[in-house]
Amino acid sequence: MKTIAFAVFCATLPTLAAADVSVTDPWARASILASRPGAAYLTLQSDIAERLTALETPAAGHVMLHGSETDANGVSRMTHIEALDLAPGTPVTFAPGGLHVMLMGLTGKLEEGSTFPLTLTFEKTGEITVEVPVLGVTATGPEGAE
């Protein structure tokens, strides 16, 4: 009887983990040169208090989470974010000019119409991998793809 209960419990684990965090609307802009950094965007929402701790993709040698800050003189600068806390039920949208995934050391040009995998690692949920479609150079998001 204990074996059956344990098997039922284990069978539910992937479903529970997958339900904790949703990753929606991933996208990236096509790059003009592979030697220039790229950026990816998406929306995160969690059912629990969660923390995004790492990002990885074979499309880039180094992946970082960046935000934007504007100083007292009105000058905007990108800032590195070590980890991102998610509040339950509150979506966090990554967008141009704001929070974004910085892709440095691209392994090749991000070609419009292609995709690449992006793995996000969360403290409690673990890893979630999504396919990121590459939109046009002037795209403003999945709805405004050119």
Q: What does the model show?
A:
This protein is mainly beta and about 150 residues long. The protein has a single domain, classed as Immunoglobulin-like (Sandwich). The protein is built from 1 helix and 10 strands. Strands 1, 2, 3, 4, 5, 6, 7, 8, 9 and 10 form a 10-stranded mixed sheet that branches. Strand 4 and strand 5 form a beta hairpin. The longest helix is centred in the N-terminal third of the chain and has 19 residues.
Give me the secondary-structure topology.
Layout lengths: L1 H19 E9 L8 E9 L3 E7 L3 E11 L5 E6 L2 E3 L5 E2 L6 E7 L8 E8 L3 E10 L11
Parallel strand pairs: 1-10
Antiparallel strand pairs: 1-2, 2-7, 2-8, 3-6, 3-9, 4-5, 4-8, 9-10
Overall geometry comes to globular
- The CATH superfamily turns out to be PCu(A)C copper chaperone
DSSP strand count: 10
CATH architectural name:
Sandwich
Defining traits:
146 residues; Immunoglobulin-like; ten-stranded mixed beta sheet; 1 helix; 13% helix; globular
In short:
The protein has one helix at 2-20; strands at residues 21-29, 38-46, 50-56, 60-70, 76-81, 84-86, 92-93, 100-106, 115-122, 126-135. It is mainly beta and 146 residues long.
